[in-house]
Amino acid sequence: MKLYNWTDTPGVFRRRVAGGAVAAVMGAAAVFGSGLTTVAHADDPATLTGVVLGVGASESQRVVSWYSSANTAQVVEVAPTSELVDGAFPADAVTFPATVGANTVNGGYNGHATVDGLQEDTAYSYRVGAEGGWSSTYSFKTQDFEGDFNFLFFGDPQIGSSGDVAKDGAGWLDTLNVALAANPNTELLVSGGDQVETANTETQWNAFLAPDKLRQYPWAATIGNHDVGGKAYEQHFWTPNTDRSAPYYNGTPATRSGGDYWFIYKDVLFIDLNSNAYSNGSDAAHIGFVTDVLNTHGADAKYTVLVYHHAIYSPAAHANDGDNQLRRQDFPTAFSKLGVDLVLQGHDHSYSRSYEIKNGKKARPGEQPSATEVAQGPGGVIYVTANSASGSKYYDLTAPDTTEDPNYGPDPLNPKSHWANSVENQEHVRTYVKVQVDARRNRLVVENIRSGTCAAPNAAVEEGNVSWCGPNDGASPAKPVGSKVDQVVIHTYRGEGRGKVDAPKPARGESAWLRQSAESGARKVTLTSLS
């Protein structure tokens, strides 16, 4: 293990590691300052379930969350995979103490810990628990901490919505396997919300969390409308830099899940909003949250990607929902003024990709439908809605209806579609979205990719919940897995008024807060780093 020095200067340290992550790292510092921690042996070891790997505040962090049958002293133990011998962790493996609290869902407990000090280009193995009661061993790999990268975006698995949890889970597992077999070096899995059909139904959560890929790649959780109404979402996913104040909930924080959060990964500032909270000033609170985060951290990243559940330029059943009509008034101008690049959304179980939208209007009236290249101007934002990743539920596309919303009528260039959308698609097959961050060429590449066909696993088709399958409303045969529904190269705007500058990069293998702290000359504390 290597020893690094870090400072506890609040203005520097909390800048990249905030909230629960700060507590976890400070706890780790206290342990490692006096040597390797020794966890008390559990006479009655806890049963540990639902282990999931989540994003941290930066490239050098991951958050691990799980359920526990007992409130014992628990940790996440981590070591480079190359140092394990016959599956056994080395004596000097690093441990990160967990926060364990009462679980309001099933009467047990839920735990989480932040793993920090990860080095780039390294395979790690980890397990959770304590001596005498460890979970299985899982693994993940970090990539370069700077440069281009890919992430995958998944719409509404909503396990249980077809009426058959097992079939929904099979489709979800298959999409993850297909997507990651095709993109093994992807670095993040980003959620569009609605992990499950019913917020506190653990059989649905068990099916959602069953794929081991969710322990190998970090899941950036998003809360959907089916995830609210209980604490299960929040207890399954601990997220970094999260504000859980009342405006970011759609009900009482003590009994429901919510919160807005952010993290920086390489050149992207991700901001995730709980769009379930939209009345009583919550939209204004969300805009304030985005504004504050960008004012404080916007210079640390090249691109801003917003993620939330309710698609405001929705193409299907939710297109004219009253709450979406309100969001279409509240969000677009603010996002344009703030310099947001890309907005990722779920909720409508169909795929759409917008034209370049500025201040709630089409930025360039002449932009053609299905254009494969778009050059953003100042204030231009692209909105993407993801289709179902599991096949549990699909919504058919709707025709624009100005009697429902006079401001959301047809596209003059393609009257069958809503004016905001360059592409709208529904084939009743599973898909996922791949986003390539190509910072060297100032572009983002967005692809919607088929992860299934009309054949099983495709629960909505199998259960007869939809009557056709395939392109052109089923008139054409299903295209193969891996084929693209849509692809667009977005040449991003980096000109005057962007409000961002390129942030200095940390040295290889060094986290940004570590280098910034060292440069500040503030008081130093010894911390063990994973290497």
Automatic annotation (TrEMBL):
The answer on whether this UniProt entry bears the keyword DNA damage reads: no
Q: Which residues form a coiled coil?
A: none
Q: Which Gene3D superfamilies match?
A: 3.60.21.10, Purple acid phosphatase-like, N-terminal
Q: Which UniProt keywords apply?
A: Signal
Give any GO molecular function from the UniProt entry: acid phosphatase activity
Q: Where is this region: Disordered?
A: 495-518
The chain positions of domain Purple acid phosphatase N-terminal read 50-142
Highest taxon listed in the record's lineage:
Bacteria
Limits of the Calcineurin-like phosphoesterase domain = 150-351
List, alphabetically, the InterPro entries matched.
Answer: Calcineurin-like_PHP, Metallo-depent_PP-like, PAPs-like, PAPs_N, Purple_acid_Pase-like_N
Identify this protein by name. Answer: Calcineurin-like phosphoesterase
